[in-house]
């Protein structure tokens, strides 16, 4: 298996002096499913932002599909981003466009024809179980449906690497299960998936590779791991995070 | 690929023009007012240029040869003057032709007839540009074969200076008005960018190139500019045509002809579209350079 992501001795210090990452080295093979875990503010999101060149490392090297991300010219960055799709906790959907249009928009801006969009959009909407909601606006969808739509948009461009930054952070346990199953399904279709999360339930349910970050450093890397107990955050009943699952655990393997 | 992108760009620009039609109407009408001003200035300058050109066509130097000079020598001297680079054309005027002209000009020519023909051979010289008039007259005056030189009235020189002054003043006004137009479109597109920052963010996130991201906005700016200018041209061209027909025969100057109006309108529309593109480019460049983080 070829390396999809190679992070070599990467450090990142923000202009205000905050050190986000320190000497991180990590390799992710093509087709892998990796959980990046750790408490909030310990570098998970920053690491993901390095992979689609939203941030540039102050030291070290980041290679994605063999491309040296920091060395890419501004002109080449869009072509990197066509290989690397991102899903966020807050979905980042276009409120003035329907579910169908949100996905078609992502396809059209990357040069796909209207005809190609007509073929691809129903396919991905069906994959995430939202075909009957194609004409609904994001505000008419539940949080779980919005996240599935965001995943559909990311998957529609057939990325080699899918990054998910706290994808279940705003969801109830059942929706979290559906979302994580979708990500696993996309991974089964050959895309490499990296999920940053501090949600132990989904990590423990899926039992995939778990890379733990603490204070910007990799502290453990386990092939079929669970959420490290020492990195658990205190439960916050009012918060949107699903560190503590009051409801039933996500039904992994079940279709959304 | 390129057709897909073009199709997307046109579709998005049309969608936004439809969605933000009130802003579009406001911009188009403001651009129309500005282009009306610019167009009127340009037409006035063209009219002025044509009129001044016609008037200055009459500017000449009249030199009389020394009466001792033979006809052949006078013709040769006249040809020498005609070969100067500043000279547009020359006309040898024999003393007989000169007398005939004098008879035509002076009504009571009985006394003149008694005098015989006191005129020497002469040459009429037209210069290429009015500014050459003085130096050419001076140079002719210095020739040994020349007895006297008469220049066209100073009035023409004053016309030239006035035309130059007016032209510069109006060019400066046009430039200022055009810059104002650029900023109006710039501000409209800024409003549009502000309203659509989410779409731009998503475009950049999924891998749209800068060209694809910027193109719908540039097209929008071009449409604002072109429609505003077309509106201005629709008002200006008929007005000028009416002015030309209404003043026909009132004065002996030429104005921009009616047949030139479609070209004038086309130039105005192209200028307006360019102005719109410049305004949009200014906004989108700034926006893309500084970017914007997603905010809920």
How does this model look, in words?
The complex is a heterodimer of chains A (256) and B (296). With 256 residues, chain A is α/β, with parallel strands linked by helices. Chain A has a domain at 3-92 and 160-231: 3-Layer(aba) Sandwich (Rossmann fold), CATH 3.40.50.300. Chain A is built from 7 helices and 10 strands. Chain A has helices spanning 44-51, 77-83, 99-109, 114-127, 143-156, 173-188, 200-206, and strands at 3-13, 19-29, 33-37, 59-64, 67-68, 84-88, 161-165, 192-197, 209-214, 217-222. In chain A, the strands form 2 sheets. Chain A has a 6-stranded mixed β-sheet with strand order 6-7-8-3-9-10, sandwiched between helices. In chain A, α5 runs parallel beside α6. With 296 residues, chain B is α+β, with helices and mostly antiparallel strands. Chain B folds into 2 domains: 2-55 and 158-290, no CATH class; 60-151, Alpha-Beta Plaits, CATH 3.30.70. In chain B, 71% of the residues lie in helices and 8% in strands. Chain B contains 10 helices and 4 strands; from the N terminus they run ααβαβααβαβαααα. Chain B has helices at 2-19, 21-56, 71-82, 95-105, 110-114, 133-141, 154-195, 197-206, 210-246, 261-290; strands at 60-65, 87-93, 122-127, 146-151. At the A-B interface, α2, β6 and α3 of A face α1, α8 and α9 of B.
């Amino acid at each position: 298996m070829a390396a999809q992501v190679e992070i070599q001795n990467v450090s990142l210090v923000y202009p205000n002096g905050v050190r986000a990452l320190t000497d991180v080295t990590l390799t992710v093979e093509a087709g892998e499913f990796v959980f990046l875990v750790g408490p909030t503010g310990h570098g998970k999101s920053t690491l993901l932002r390095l992979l689609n060149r939203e941030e540039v490392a102050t030291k070290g090297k980041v290679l994605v599909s063999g491309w040296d991300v920091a060395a890419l010219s501004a002109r080449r960055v869009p072509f990197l981003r066509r290989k690397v799709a991102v899903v966020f906790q807050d979905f980042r959907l276009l409120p003035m466009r329907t579910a169908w249009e949100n996905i078609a928009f992502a396809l059209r801006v990357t040069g796909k024809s209207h005809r190609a969009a007509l073929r691809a959009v129903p396919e991905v909407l069906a994959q995430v179980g939202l075909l009957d909601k194609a004409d609904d606006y994001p505000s008419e969808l539940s949080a779980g449906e919005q996240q599935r739509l965001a995943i559909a948009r990311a998957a529609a461009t057939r990325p080699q690497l899918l990054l998910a930054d706290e994808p279940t952070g705003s969801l109830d346990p059942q929706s979290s299960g559906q979302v994580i199953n979708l990500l696993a399904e996309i991974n089964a279709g050959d895309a490499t998936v990296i999920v940053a999360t501090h949600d132990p339930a989904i990590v423990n349910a899926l039992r995939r590779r778990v890379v733990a970050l603490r204070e910007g450093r990799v502290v453990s890397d386990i092939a079929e791991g669970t959420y490290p107990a020492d990195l658990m955050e205190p439960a916050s009943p009012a918060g949107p995070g699903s560190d503590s699952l009051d409801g039933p655990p996500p039904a992994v393997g079940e279709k959304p | 690929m390129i057709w897909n992108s073009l199709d997307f760009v046109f579709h998005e620009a049309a969608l936004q023009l439809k969605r933000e039609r009130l802003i579009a109407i406001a911009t188009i009408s403001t651009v129309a007012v500005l282009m009306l001003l610019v167009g009127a200035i340009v037409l006035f300058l063209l009219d002025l240029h044509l009129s001044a050109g016609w008037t200055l066509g009459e500017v000449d130097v009249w030199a009389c040869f020394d009466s001792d000079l033979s006809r052949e020598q006078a013709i040769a001297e006249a040809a020498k003057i005609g070969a100067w680079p500043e000279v547009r054309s020359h006309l040898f005027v024999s003393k007989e032709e000169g007398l005939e002209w004098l008879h035509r000009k002076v009504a009571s020519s009985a006394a003149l007839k008694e005098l015989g023909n006191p005129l020497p051979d002469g040459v009429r010289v037209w210069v290429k540009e009015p500014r050459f008039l003085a130096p050419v007259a001076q140079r002719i005056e210095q020739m040994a074969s020349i007895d006297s030189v008469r220049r066209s009235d100073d009035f023409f020189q004053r016309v030239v200076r006035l035309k130059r002054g007016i032209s510069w003043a109006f060019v400066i006004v046009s430039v200022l008005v055009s810059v104002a137009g650029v900023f109006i479109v710039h501000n409209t597109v800024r409003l549009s960018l502000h309203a659509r920052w989410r779409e731009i963010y998503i475009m950049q996130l999924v891998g749209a190139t800068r060209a694809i991201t910027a193109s719908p906005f540039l097209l929008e700016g071009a449409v604002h500019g072109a429609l505003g200018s077309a509106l201005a041209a629709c008002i200006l061209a008929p007005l000028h045509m009416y002015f030309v027909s209404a003043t026909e025969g009132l004065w002996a100057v030429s104005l921009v002809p009616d047949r030139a109006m479609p070209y004038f309108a086309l130039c105005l529309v192209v200028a307006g579209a360019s102005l719109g593109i410049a305004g949009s480019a200014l906004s989108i460049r700034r926006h893309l350079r500084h970017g914007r983080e997603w905010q809920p």
